Amino acid sequence: MDELLEGSGYAAQCSAIPWMTRDRFPWNLNPMIKKMHSGAKQLSRICDEIIEKRRAERDAGERAEKHDLLDKLLHLDEVDLRGNLITFLIAGSDTTAMTVAWCLYYLALYPGVQDKARAEVDGLGHDPDTIEDLDELVYVKCCILEALRLQPPGVLLLNECTHDTELNGHRIPSGTKVTTLLHKAMITEAQGGKNFDPERWLLPDGSSIDQARVRDHLAFGGGPRQCPGQNMAIKEAVKFWFYVIELSRCKY
């Protein structure tokens, strides 16, 4: 894993000239490129072993009462299933940690928001041991969503235009590669600007979270390739923040 991450970091710096990252002569003489491809192959083997074991358990009837995210994806072909599993293993730890860190900053910067989140935490009255408990922490979740809007852990989205279109007066031909800068896209006036306001994620009557807006949160991408771990990541962050708010006070 370390080799893959180290090599991938180098490859990201070469993204403007992607042919330099290929696993072929002479580019694979570069030790960093070697590390990346060696780590990727090892990770693929690990994922294949996990998939094979899980399918064997399913076929033997050993998972009749167990259902997790991998179980739900076993119908996919090998390439798609392996790709999703690699995403689960390496793509969620640093992004969630960064979101939690930024939320720490904003709660320290806005003590009124922190007090409101603390009142909700105290109102629950016990540790959030179930999904239902986490769903009760509506305002804390709004804080996480707003921190994600202002400081998305992902830098950009890469898409390809599938048909001729026009965007803001600019013609974009079919086949054009389109890069969306997430931070810039989510601090426009239409998205709420740069103000930290967790309540923008609530319905107009304030009764619950606007789920339609959450589904369209650009921090997780969009369409059929939207982050499959979106709900899990948010719940992880909410649970972490429950204990931070319960046991400490953030000061700037």
UniProtKB/TrEMBL annotation:
Keywords: Heme, Iron, Metal-binding, Monooxygenase, Oxidoreductase
Single GO MF descriptor: monooxygenase activity
Binding-site positions, heme: 227
Database matches in Pfam families: p450
Record keyword Signal present: no
Gene3D superfamilies: Cytochrome P450
Keyword DNA damage on entry: no
PROSITE patterns cross-referenced by the UniProt entry: CYTOCHROME_P450
Cofactor(s), by name: heme
Similarity comment: family membership: Belongs to the cytochrome P450 family.
Record-given protein name: Cytochrome p450, putative
Classification of source organism: Eukaryota, Sar, Alveolata, Perkinsozoa, Perkinsea
